[in-house]
Amino acid sequence: MSLDFTQWSCPLPLRDYPNIVVGHGGGGKLTTELIQHLFAPAFDDPALHQRGDAAVLPLDGARLAISTDSFVVRPLFFPGGSIGELAVNGTINDLAMMGAQPRYLTAGFIVEEGLPLAQLGVIVERMAAAARAAGVRIVAGDTKVVDKGHGDGVFINTTGIGVIPDGVSIGPDRARPGDGVLINGSIGDHGMAIMSVREGLQFETTIASDTAPLHGLVAAMLEAAPGAVHVLRDPTRGGLAAALNEIAVASRVGIQIDERALPVSADVQAACELLGIDPIYVANEGKLVAFVAQEAVETVLACMRAHPLGRGAAVIGRVVEQPAGLVTARTAIGGARVIPMPLGEQLPRIC
Amino acid sequence: MCLGIPGRVQAIYEADGVRMGKVNFGGIVKDVCLEYVPEVAVGDYTIVHVGFAITRVDEASAQESLRLFREMGMLDEELRPEQHAGEVAPPACPVDPWGGAADDRP
Amino acid sequence: MKYLVEFRDGEIAQRLAAEIRRMTTRPWAIMEVCGGQTHAIIRNGIDQLLPPEIELIHGPGCPVCVTPLEVIDKALAIAARPDVIFCSFGDMLRVPGSHKDLFRVKSEGGDVRVVYSPLDAVTIARDNPHKQVVFFAIGFETTAPANAMAVIVAKRQGIRNFSMLVSHVLVPPAIEAIMNSPSNRVQAFLAAGHVCSVMGYWQYLPLAERYHTPIVVTGFEPLDVLEGIRRAVRQLETGEACVENAYPRAVTLEGNRPAQRMLAEVFEVTDRAWRGIGVIPNSGWRLRDAYRDFDAEARFDVAAIRAQESPICRSGDVLQGKLKPYECPAFGKECTPRTPLGATMVSSEGACAAYYHYGRFA
């Protein structure tokens, strides 16, 4: 079968970009459009249209969550972690955001010719350690090697399978007016840790990636307030802003954030000031945003704060009816602004 | 235009004949070119734009501005509730200290 | 962060705004020249705290926005060359030329790199002696000293494979052009604080006098912007027209002398086209003859490239304060940050982009 790209069209054409640009992988509008107009229509499966972090599939009376994620990060090692931990925790978190208990992972490696074996060894060790710590088994794998210059050392894909306990029902379309919006700690740490070691932008800092598996925290939250957690999302690429916008659209609600309530560490704030980047758009790898029924907000908050991965938890906003599909913020000086979906990746500004 | 962020100079050094410094921005340390602020010493605050210090922060001025801000509404509420700000003599326009001698200007 | 967060205090901001509301008796149109201030105003919702009589007109002070289409096209042509590493500030990558942007050139194989400082580009040149390294030297007076230093360092160290595509623009000639425009509505200016850190504000004294227009040197944090507005309103209400410095912690009358000396050494004044506005006489800097060897335009023979701006885009009117972004017929339709037609939509700092991002459609 041959593909005819000249016949392909979409309602909101990528007319400026006939080629893939890095922004298509940035988790913003370009990514969304690529999924909406290219992948989703082609594969056209109801599970894809759920638009959750993982697909939820019935199997012999049980409900499985399945998710796949590929990891490309430069540099491979960064403050607070490496591509190895990311590859394990990232997929675990996608499963956890559907309320699933992760069970099994597969691991695919696309290795660039010339990568020192010792480096690959360390990465794989770290993956193994992360999986053990999370209580998840890595049960299948694959290796391919590409020519030198055709990859950044190593790319890793992991696919995860988890089981959703009975009675748990979480999805991006379940936010309801009145719900409280909670986060389990400070935002922007992962993205700024990577930025601090990126060529051309380096700065000295103690900021470390927040990469962590969140299924334990999720299990505790679901137990503390059964049925009260409506939506969970891990704000990775595109940051908290992208996650909130996706939920506002999927649930057809408005989301109001109080900027003063957003937890941001002093170092991350400083790095963001320096580069002219808003922390609400910066990636996280160990954070979740939870939409919780009003009456259970205090219970869930207390439960989160009691967990090691939720000590910095905070209520950052609430769900309103209107304007549906829009995320707004009350600014520190008492004004209001819209928090739009990011376009592509974040760029340092000079002005 | 021109994102400029204040930071504290924590070390000064020379690299390839260029005056450089380690500047601390609330915990983030960045190498910054100090060629244009020869008066800046370790401990001073400077405003940095695209890796260059463009001016020393006048800390006394900064404190004075903040003091004036804090007093602003307070005076109205506490000291002169009936008075209108327009009645207070406005500060005189700044004068050109070069007295119009344009030749010396860059 | 010291000297930053103190100037974001919400309570004091409310008090400053109340003071402005109390002082204001008539409608006034105030232009914030600098795009950084436009960003701060929209980002913090500062305009929502002001009385309805005060209209903020967004000025042409976004270096990314006003870089002429033709220069972008030249940048794209140079960046596409296989022997070139093209270095740029981050926010320049998304700015479209006639047909594409630097992201697209990168996707087609161009080696395009984001740098934080112009000196980083010089370092890349030193580390890649077999490549031509070109730095896209845009910006107002604030950025120019950094770009000048890059040339000086390259020359001093004999780094021959480094060059710059220069497109510097200057604030005072732009203010003059706005004031001379027959349809001008601006009654007072907030001058850009960091431009004045470098250049001082003596240049504005004759402008304030000639056009009988208050000019207030203003910083970038919410309290700074509100204080700038407060002082401008005070002058307008009392009929004064002088230059005031509302950013004294970073600005002196005479500015940064060492930087000014370096600028005079490296650059000379030239006419410059502003995207969406047109040519403003003596409103730019170019490399002096002594540094012409580092001029990328000459080195890569792109002088012949010419470009036409979109006929439906009215960014020129937006930049001159004649039109609010949402009043442009193309705003949010043909023209979005994804598919920008004009200067003011291209940079996150441009007025149209700020309005679009923060949902100001009316």
Give a short overview.
Chain A has 351 residues and is α+β, with helices and mostly antiparallel strands. Chain A has two domains: 61-167, 60s Ribosomal Protein L30, Chain: A; 180-338, PurM-like C-terminal domain (Phosphoribosyl-aminoimidazole Synthetase, Chain A, domain 2), CATH 3.90.650.
Largest sheet of chain B, in brief, is: 5 strands, antiparallel
Q: What are the segments of chain B in which pLDDT stays under 50 over at least 5 consecutive residues? A: 77-106
Mean pLDDT of chain B: 78
Most extensive chain-chain interface:
B-C, 51 and 76 residues
CATH topology title of the largest domain in chain A:
Phosphoribosyl-aminoimidazole Synthetase, Chain A, domain 2
SS-derived structural category of chain B:
alpha+beta
**CATH T-level fold name of one domain in chain B:** SH3 type barrels
Structural notes for this entry:
The complex is a heterotrimer of chains A (351), B (106) and C (362). Chain A is α+β, with helices and mostly antiparallel strands and 351 residues long. Chain A has two domains: 61-167, PurM-like, N-terminal domain (60s Ribosomal Protein L30, Chain: A, 2-Layer Sandwich), CATH 3.30.1330.10; 180-338, Phosphoribosyl-aminoimidazole Synthetase, Chain A, domain 2 (Alpha-Beta Complex). Chain A contains nine helices and 14 strands. Chain A is globular. By secondary structure, chain B is α+β, with helices and mostly antiparallel strands. Chain B has a domain at 5-57: SH3 type barrels (Roll). Chain B is elongated and about 55 Å long. Helix content of chain C is 38%, strand content 19%. In chain C, strands 4-3-5-6-11-10 form a six-stranded mixed sheet, with helices on both faces. Chain C has a five-stranded parallel sheet with strand order 2-1-7-8-9, with helices on both faces. In chain C, α6 (118-127) runs parallel beside α7 and α7 packs across α12 (257-266). The interface between B and C is large, with 51 and 76 residues.
Secondary structure topology:
The complex is a heterotrimer of chains A (351), B (106) and C (362).
Chain A: H1 29-43, H2 46-49, E1 55-59, E2 62-71, E3 77-78, E4 81-82, H3 83-96, E5 101-112, H4 117-134, E6 137-146, E7 154-164, E8 180-183, H5 189-195, H6 215-224, E9 229-233, H7 239-251, E10 254-258, H8 266-275, E11 289-292, H9 297-305, E12 314-320, E13 327-330, E14 336-338
Parallel strand pairs in A: 5-6, 10-13
Antiparallel strand pairs in A: 1-2, 2-7, 3-4, 5-7, 8-11, 8-12, 9-11, 10-12, 13-14
Chain B: E1 5-15, E2 18-25, E3 28-33, E4 45-49, E5 52-56, H1 59-79
Antiparallel strand pairs in B: 1-2, 1-4, 2-3, 4-5
Chain C: H1 10-23, E1 28-34, H2 35-44, E2 54-61, H3 63-66, H4 69-79, E3 84-88, H5 102-107, E4 111-114, H6 118-127, E5 132-139, H7 144-156, E6 162-169, H8 171-180, E7 188-192, H9 193-199, H10 204-210, E8 215-218, H11 222-238, E9 243-245, H12 257-266, E10 267-274, E11 278-287, H13 296-299, H14 315-319, H15 343-346, H16 351-357
Parallel strand pairs in C: 1-2, 1-7, 3-4, 3-5, 5-6, 7-8, 8-9
Antiparallel strand pairs in C: 6-11, 10-11
